[in-house]
Amino acid sequence: MAEEKNGNGAEAEKKIDAEIEKSEELRRSKDLIEKGVAGAEIVAEMEQAFIDYAMSVIVDRALPAVEDGLKPVHRRILYAMHSLGLDTSKATMKCARIVGETMGKYHPHGNLAIYDSLVRMAQDFSLRYPLVHGQGNFGSMDGDSPAADRYTEAKLSKISAELIEDIEKKTVKMRPNFDNSMEEPEILPAKLPNLLLNGATGIAVGMATNIPPHNLTEVCDAIVESINKPNITIEELGEIVKGPDFPTGGIITGTSGIQEMYKNGKGKVVIRGRTSVEDHKGRPVIIITEIPYMVNKSDLVKTIARLATEKKLPDVYDLRDESKGLGKIRIVIELKKEADPRFTLNKLYTSTNLETSFDANMLALVANKPRVLNLKQIIEEYIKYRQLIVRNRSKFDLKKAEERLEIVLGLLIALRNIDKIVEFIKKSANATDANDGLMKKFELTERQAKAVLEIKLQQLTRLEDSKLKEEEKKLKETIAELKKILGDEKEILRIIKAEVQELKRKYGDERRTRIIKKVEEITEKDLIEKKDVVVMITNAGYIKRVDVKSYKEQKRGGAGVAGGDLKEEDFVKNLITCSTHDSLLFFTSRGKIYWMKANDVPASERQGRGKALINVLDLKEETLTNAMAVKNFEKGYLMFATKLGIVKKLPLLDVSKPRTAGVRVINLPNDNSDSLISVNVVEDKQEVILVTKKGQAIRFNSDEVRPMGRSSYGVKGAELGKNDEVVSMEAIPHDGKTTILTLTSRGFGKRSELEEYRKTSRGAKGVINFNTSDKTGDVISSLSVNGNDSIIATSTKGMVIRVSMRDLRVMGRATQGVHVVKLKEGDRVADIVKVPKEDDIPVVGQQELA
Q1: Taking a C-beta distance cutoff of 8 angstroms, is the pair 794, 829 a contact?
Q2: Minimum mean pLDDT range among 274-283, 295-304, 804-813
Q3: Which of 555, 571, 593 lies closest to 832 in space, CA to CA?
Q4: Architecture of the 525-835 domain
Q5: Mean pLDDT estimate for the chain
Q6: What distance in Å separates the CA atoms of residue 678 and residue 676, rounded to the nearest whole number?
Q7: What's the pLDDT score for residue 630?
Q8: 363, exposed or middle or buried, with CB in 10 Å at 0-12, 13-18, 19+?
Q9: 546 φ/ψ sector (left φ>0, alpha ψ -120 to 50, else beta)
Q10: Beta bridge partners of 176
Q11: What three-state secondary structure class fits 783?
Q12: What are the tens digits of pLDDT across the range 544-557?
């Protein structure tokens, strides 16, 4: 019992002690409250304080708004300069005054932070489109500090006015400044899509933004296309906005990082400086003319010098910085005579900031909340915000117009009753009675009555009456237009499109940053500039490639221009018009085929001789009789024709795999009695026409010739007369507009309708195509042409002339034709070829093609 009693006593003591402790804590709390100190849990208090601080940094300091692309400090600087009247037409003002205005009214932080932000907005190597026009020393790409704000001056740049325009029309929300003494805008109206144009960089608490600058022309085009096509994909936008466009230029290598950035809002963009290699006194010299964005030029030069001293760039002989003025970069790296510049460049890319990466993170504030945005979302947010601005502006303008219309209508009433009103005002005891009386007697509103009382006597004229009526008419039209805008969202989008297109017209410029694919992304075609060329092959075995624009187009009967510096008795045998992306197939007299890319043919001037064919192709005791260009090997057939009238059809796919030594494609007799004279690409059911030198033509369907293998000879295609032979074969197009052009060795030619050539079976004698004689000479070739085509004819003495088919009328099939090519004594036409249609090649009448 005693133990139980002791136990109960101990519990009672513990309860008493707990109550005393609680009373003491309560008393201490009361004492603190009386002294103005509130008790709180330290962990929860620290968490809340940190969150408040983080949000303050995120929203009010480090991150740009998606609407105007500005951080608060930049927005306040621009608004302060606007308030000071520092637009582009005014004189500059001391930066110290601008900093003081910004700090005293809107941004209560250090003046150095404000000045640094002002300076960056004026640097053309920091912003793609500078928002501030600076006068004085605003720093350099070498990292030089700007002069003190008491020495430099600034005003708004022309383009920054587009950010502030319409702010007086209550287009944006205004909020109290830090001391509630005045108001500042939450966001600027931002007609300019500044977030993408100038980008942004900022470090907040737990997050950071790094948005690259872009080209204004491309961004404006993307906005217009997004309005026209609301469901546009990011991939389609990426075709318009090619990639970042840095103010310092440079070269972006690889497109995968750009695509990732536009799709997910994050991506890595690799930038290289722009370089070129020159020769100076026998030494190779690397010239750096552009450096990557945000790279310090002076540090880059020092790094290159250090690496050269440490023998990590052993080929560097001399290093000079010849840059002159801001933004004019020229770093000269002179190498040793035996050095290969490629190796030095590769080392510069890997060891210096000549190659850097831009880690993009497109984070911005959307409705004061940080969000990572892709390209489409940024453009959509811009369009959505501009819709709001245009709507608010239209409401403001509508209200102003309606108020003014009310006044104008009141003044018109007063002018119609001017005598009564003057008499009434004279009899009124005071202004209040006059005002009330006018409202009652003449049914005027309060504002109308006030306007009538304030009108000047000089305005009581007929001229003023007509002005008021004209103003009334214009106001009503304006009100109708504004109501139309406010009542139709499509009208608002139309206005946004028009404004964006105007921005493009006023400020659009060329890209500064070039974008190239990585080596693993580059295809063979990407390495070759696609353009139309003429491949020319002479009888003596020379080959060259000439730009098709090198020729004049002359009228019928012209003398032509020199086609090459040919040896005596040499002449141009083959002319091929093609693209540099095409494959060339070369056929020999003994039925063998060789392959070559058109761009691999040695380039030459029109007057140049070219390169010996035996040094280009592996020809062995064979002569080249035909050559052609092929774009696609997947469908179609090769149609062969021989001198003795044998034809053969071979699937084009059978010759799609090039071999250096060539492949035999037609098995000609060993006695050399026959030879290959023509090859064409044909499709199923396509007709062909064989033409002989004595003026016969055989037209038949190519399906009459079955496909054969490479080792076969072929089948009979034409029945030839005595001393006759086939000189050409032409595949007839399916367009139904074809005429047959035939040209003789003495320059006579004609065009005849295809319908005049009766279709026969393969192996027939055919019909008369040309009435040949000693005057005309034998037929040298025929082509299928229409009125939009042009031909190039060559002579045995190397003359070349280009003739439009518009100048050659259509004649009968059996005629002698007209003089098409004017030849010199002893000269003969050697070959003709059809060039691409005139709408595919720039043609400037009779002038030299540029």
Answers
A1: yes
A2: 804-813
A3: 571
A4: 6 Propeller (2.120)
A5: 85
A6: 6
A7: 86
A8: buried
A9: beta
A10: 183
A11: strand
A12: 888 776 654 444 44
Query: For the domain bounded by 274-353, which CATH number is listed?
Result: 3.30.1360.40
pLDDT at 356: 94
- Distances from the Cα of 583 to the Cαs of 601, 630, 836, in angstroms? 11, 5, 16
Q: 536, 564 in Cβ contact below 8 A?
A: yes
CA distance 787 to 815: 20
* Residue-wise pLDDT tens digits, 483-539: 999 999 999 999 999 999 999 999 999 999 999 987 555 455 654 657 788 888 776
Nearest to 583 by CA among 541, 538, 524: 524
Distance CA 850, CA 839 (A): 15
Asked if residues 741 and 782 have their Cβ atoms less than 8 Å apart, the reply is: yes
CA–CA gap between residue 561 and residue 611 (Å, rounded):
21
Query: CA nearest 590: which of 698, 671, 707, 523?
Result: 671
Distance CA 62, CA 60 (A): 7
Higher pLDDT, 541 or 130: 130
Distance CA 238, CA 218 (A): 10
52 three-class SS? helix
343: pLDDT strictly greater than 50:
yes
* DSSP classification of residue 848: P
Place of tokens 């404004």: 499
**Pick from 352, 341, 244: which is nearest to 297 by CA?**
352
8 Å CB contact between 73 and 113? yes
Q: Pull the structure tokens for residue 67.
A: 């609407």
- Return the half-sphere exposure (C-beta side, CA atoms, 13 A cut-off) of residue 385: 27
Domain spans, the chain: 2-32, 70-189, 274-353, 392-507, 525-835
Q: Which of 53, 115, 129, 151 is catalytic?
A: 151
Check if the beta carbon of residue 220 is closer than 8 Å to that of residue 504: yes
The number of helix segments (H) and strand segments (E) in the chain equals 18, 42
pLDDT tens digits, one per residue of 259-275: 999 999 999 999 999 99
For residue 627, what are its two tokens? 């050559």
Q: What share of the chain is helix, strand, coil (3-state, %, to 5)?
A: 35, 25, 40
- Please check whether residue 590 is in contact with residue 675, taking contact to mean a CB–CB distance below 8 angstroms: yes
3.40.1190.20, 3.20.170.30, 1.10.268.10, 3.40.50.10860: which CATH number matches 392-507?
1.10.268.10
Sign of CA dihedral 188, 193, 198, 201: positive
Q: Is the pLDDT of residue 756 over 50?
A: yes
Cα torsion through 138, 143, 148, 151, rounded to 10? -30
**151 is known as an active-site residue:** yes
The Cα–Cα gap between 544 and 778 comes to: 29
Which pLDDT score is estimated for 132?
97
Alpha-carbon distance of 74 to 98, in angstroms, equals: 12
Contact assessment for residue 270 and residue 116, using Cβ atoms and an 8 Å cutoff: no
43, amino acid identity: V
- The tokens of 370 are what? 């940080």
C-alpha 615, offset from chain centre: 41
CA dihedral 72, 77, 78, 83 (to 10 degrees): 120
CA distance readout (Å), 96 to 119, 138, 149, 834: 12, 13, 5, 72
Round to whole Å and give the CA distance between 688 and 699. Answer: 6
Question: Taking CA 83 as the corner, what is the angle to CA 209 and CA 215, rounded to the nearest 5 degrees?
Answer: 40
> Which residue's entry shows tokens 């043609």?
843
pTM for this entry: 0.60
Q: 């195509």: which residue's tokens?
A: 769
Round the CA-based radius of gyration of the chain to a whole number and report it. Answer: 42
Q: Which CATH architecture has domain 70-189?
A: Alpha-Beta Complex (3.90)
Residues 6 or more apart in contact with residue 738 via CB below 8 angstroms:
732, 754, 784, 785, 786
What span, in angstroms and rounded, lies between the C-alpha atoms of 131 and 116?
14
Say if residue 558 is exposed, middle or buried (CB neighbours under 10 Å; 0-12, 13-18, 19+): middle
